[in-house]
What we know:
This protein is α+β, with helices and mostly antiparallel strands. The chain contains seven helices and 15 strands. It has a six-stranded mixed β-sheet. Zinc ion (ZN) is lined by residues 184, 186-187, 248, 250-251. Zinc ion (ZN) binds at residues 184, 186-187, 248, 250-251.
Amino acid sequence: MNLSNKDVIHIKKNGIEYLQFRKLLEYKDKVKHAYSVGIDKNFRTARVGGLSPEEYNKSLNDYKDLCESVGSNYINIVKPNQRHTNEVKIVNEKINLNAPDFGMEQYDSTDGVITNKENIVLSTTNADCIILLFYDPVKNVIANIHSGWKGTLHRIAVNAVRKMRAEFGCKPEDIIACMCPSIRKCHFEVEQDVRDLYVEEFQDIPEEEWLEETIKSKKWHIDTVALNKIMLKKEGLKEENIVDSGICSVCNSELLHSYRAEGKNFNLSSAIIELKTL
Ligand SMILES: [Zn+2]
């Protein structure tokens, strides 16, 4: 099965599969990136939750393989300990190589990381949540943002853009935002409580653009991808620079990890992005 479409390319190389955005490949001399494909891979590294040493080592190997496929080195990974916050932090240096957690302790309760430094592989993981990869080719700044339903509700993508502006002088019209596979409106059905939180928060965006009641009613489908696109446009990003993979993780759960499809023992996919040494 092949997930390639007009915006992403599905690469299979030496038993490793990953997606790349055609838009970011236009800058392949300056930036490397990948989104993992394959449910035999797992990018969970937190030992909490009972990850055995064998499982942990397998995750490290999966990171190693994914990184090597795009010419990165997994020892340069910086990965926040995601907690569904809207907290975005700047990464200025590599993590001590003796710390096997890729910096999850240092970047705890953080769901987005930004850097303008080379040789730092920014990584986040997901299983239905949206991951946004940002790149500003003018200022040469990258970001890797995890935006699940809570992150979207609390507008973490907007926080990321504002931080790129404030810290690095990035202009919104230069920033490219790529949205990795995630749960989509087709499968993101919520109850009244979540619907109410969204309606309260997104009064600035017409409901018909992101909310739909199911036929049987008292359940709703929310289009978190559309909301992120609209938020980013309002923030000044150009429409042609907001790129959506268009791939639903639940519809494609034979290739991509999905919380809704796998249940409580779900595993994780990963997106990586790194600035090349110029
Ligand atoms: Zn779906």
